[in-house]
Design goal:
The complex is a heterodimer of chains A (508) and B (121). Chain A is 77% helix and 2% strand. With 508 residues, chain A is mainly α. Chain A has a domain at 272-446 and 467-508. The model of chain A is unreliable at 448-464 (pLDDT under 50). Chain B is built from five helices and no strands. In chain B, helix 2 runs antiparallel to helix 3 (31-53) and helix 3 (31-53) runs antiparallel to helix 4 (76-106). The chains are: A mainly alpha (508), B mainly alpha (121). The A-B interface holds A 129, 132-133, 136, 139-140, 143-144, 147, 151-153, 155-156, 158-159, 162-163, 166-167, 170, 173-174, 177, 180-181, 186, 456-457, 459 and B 22, 25, 31, 34-35, 38, 41-42, 45, 48-49, 52, 76-77, 80, 83-84, 87, 90-91, 94-95, 98-99, 101-102, 104-106, 114, 118, 121.
């Protein structure tokens, strides 16, 4: 019964986007209201179907009555359920900040719903070509949202993102082409058996793996394929930065996990150990270089963006090592990073709205003036560093545990070093916020006025300075901090819920 | 070698298109030319899929009543590429829209000139 409702996870936001266009003809507020309603319904649906999938085992349906492997299959297992719920909840939560932060316009809400369509589609599809289509829907919506800041700078960043993103998706498509030539099928579950039959050392299979991994790693923004990402995050409107930093790369990393374990299966890594070693090395370099680049940034949003390069390196290391603990750690870190980074980007947006502060130095003295906002941001930063009991600690712990059990000692050392480097840039920021004397922009904001703060790209109207943070932004940042800690505390329950899924994924 | 050229020449076209597309995207300073390069790159992948569907003496895959009539060319890659072409058109439209925005703001579509303009900001 609930199987038949799976297509709604994609159809609901898609229809909602059309409805938002219609409602937008009446007024912009109507479009916003439709978006909120649709995302609330999507959250309910994702939660209900997700709990069914976790309790009663995977749900699946062949779209249009065509049975798999010929038709397109939609599948929800424990892992995709977690990603679906994350997408729905975060997009609904960030919508509250959209209304606060940027007057979006009808087009903005339509793109927002299309982005949710693409991300949900990537999470539920069981077909590799269908995944390509959703990857491109996600991409198109994201490029438009980045450019919705209306500045020239954001248009340049969006174009750069578009060129990178298109080549990445094209490489993924090329990989799908090789897999299709080797097997004649596109269904993920069917590919798993057919690829084994074709032989894992066949050049077609190896080429398809290489192209798919490079394509998805570019979408995930691993070093050195990350260069689109800091510009896109830094120049997008603040609410869009929060949304895409929390979701877009996360779902790309999920797709990588899904392809490696559902399509290529652990047996591929057994047969071609060099593929695993290369992926681990690639991700380990990303961890270190991402952190080092983050330390050298002075602008907050760019620092957070480079921090993501490093954190996704951790996730990919976990899934490449492939012991149950490491894969579980990768999933926990994927979900936890989305919450923490989303919350930090909302905090950065709220601070910029309040004071105009966008650099590390301008953050000086912030916590004295805005104790709740500063405190919650500091909690999120320390959670990201990996201070127990927050979720950042749980994810890193399981990944490191998996690495040690697999005998990959150098990886465990890299994870420890990355924790120190993460501490280096977040501790600096926390020190600025809590200890350093207040900067001019912070002083100006609390004195009720603000002089020219060097907004270099002042094409859009700057919001008027407020003397206290908006309730919605504050609620989001505090909420993200609470979730980061609660997720860390209940991580063993999460482990129990996801154990059957991960066991199925890792079974040869 | 000669046999390769006469029977598999479409794959050489694929390699050439991918190479030319990537080169134009990297080398050209002009944003519109970069987008053209992106299109050439994607076309290379389209030709790759269509070549893979080819079957010597294959017919269009319309099965007569009563069956038989093969061999057929594979219809699947062609359907996939139809979708991919639509995706490519949408991407080109969004990319050109962004170039229009960049031209309105900065008065140039040249990457180097843009860097100079932005350095002066």
């Amino acid at each position: 019964m609930s199987d038949a409702l799976l297509p709604l996870l994609v159809a609901l936001p898609l229809l909602g986007a059309v409805l938002a266009v219609a409602a937008g003809l009446a007024s912009e507020r109507a479009a916003a209201a439709v978006t909120t309603l649709v995302l609330a319904a999507q959250t309910g649906l994702a939660g209900w179907l997700g709990s069914q999938a976790v309790l009663d085992g995977p749900l699946s349906v062949g779209v249009g009555g065509f049975a798999a492997p010929y038709g397109i299959e939609l599948v929800v297992d424990g892992l995709s359920a977690a990603v679906l719920v994350l997408v729905a909840v975060v997009s609904l939560a960030v919508l509250a900040f959209v209304a606060e932060d940027d007057p979006g316009g009808t087009a903005f809400y339509v793109q927002y719903l299309l982005l949710v369509t693409g991300l949900s589609g990537m999470a539920v599809t069981g077909d590799v070509f269908n995944l390509y289509v959703f990857l491109e829907i996600t991409g198109l919506a994201t490029y438009a949202l980045v450019a919705s800041a209306g500045t020239g700078r954001s248009a340049v960043s969006a174009l750069k993102y578009l060129l990178f993103g298109t080549v990445a998706a094209s490489l993924y498509l090329l990989g799908v082409g090789y897999a299709l030539m080797a097997t004649g099928t596109l269904n993920m579950a069917d590919l798993a058996t057919e690829l084994a039959a074709a032989g894992y050392d066949s050049p077609l299979v190896l080429a398809s793996f290489g192209f798919i991994v490079v394509g998805l790693a570019t979408k995930t923004a691993l070093f050195p394929l990350h260069t689109w990402q800091p510009d896109a995050y830094a120049d997008a409107p603040d609410s869009v930065s929060a949304l895409i930093a929390a979701l877009v790369s996360t779902v790309a990393a999920y797709a990588l996990l899904r392809l490696i374990y559902t399509v290529y299966t652990p047996a591929f890594f057994e047969a071609v150990p060099v593929a695993r070693d290369a992926l681990v090395a690639f991700a380990a370099v990303s961890i270190v270089v991402g952190s080092v680049l983050a330390v050298t940034q002075s602008e907050i949003k760019r620092m957070l963006a480079y921090s993501s390069v490093s954190q996704y390196g951790l996730v990919v290391v976990g899934l490449a090592i492939g012991t149950p603990a490491a894969v579980f750690g990768a999933v926990v870190h994927l979900l936890g990073h989305a919450m923490m980074k989303g919350g930090l980007f909302v905090a950065a947006g709220a601070v910029a709205d309040l004071t105009g502060a966008r650099t590390v130095d301008e953050y000086a003295g912030l916590a004295d003036r805005f104790p709740v906002l500063g405190g919650a941001s500091a909690v999120l930063m320390l959670a990201m560093v990996g201070v127990p009991p927050a979720v950042g600690f749980a994810g890193k712990w399981y990944i490191a545990l998996g690495a040690v059990r697999a005998g990959a000692w150098p990886v465990a050392v890299v994870i420890f070093a990355s924790t120190l480097l993460t501490l280096a840039y977040f501790a600096l920021l926390v020190e600025r916020m809590f200890v350093a004397p207040a900067s001019e922009s912070v002083l100006a904001a609390t004195d009720g006025g603000r002089d020219g703060d060097g907004d270099t790209d002042a094409f859009g109207p700057s919001p008027p300075p407020a003397s206290r943070p908006s309730r919605r932004a504050l609620a989001l940042v505090v909420g993200a901090a609470v979730v980061a800690i609660v997720l860390g505390v209940v991580v063993t329950d999460l482990g129990t819920a996801l154990e059957p899924t991960i066991d199925t994924l890792l079974s040869p | 070698m000669i046999e390769l050229l006469t029977t598999k020449y479409t794959y050489l076209v694929v390699v050439a298109l991918l190479g030319i597309g990537a080169y134009v995207m990297i080398e050209s300073d002009n944003f519109v030319k970069k987008i053209i390069g992106m299109n050439i790159f994607q076309t290379g992948i389209f030709v790759f899929f269509i070549s893979s569907a080819f079957h010597t003496a294959g017919r269009s895959p319309v099965v007569q009543s009563g069956g038989g009539g093969g061999p057929f060319v594979s219809p699947l890659p062609q359907v996939l590429i139809l979708t991919a072409i639509v995706v490519g058109v949408s991407l080109t439209a969004v990319a050109l829209g962004l170039v229009v925005r960049i031209y309105e703001r900065y008065g140039t579509i040249n990457e180097r000139t843009l860097e100079e303009v932005r350095a002066d900001e």
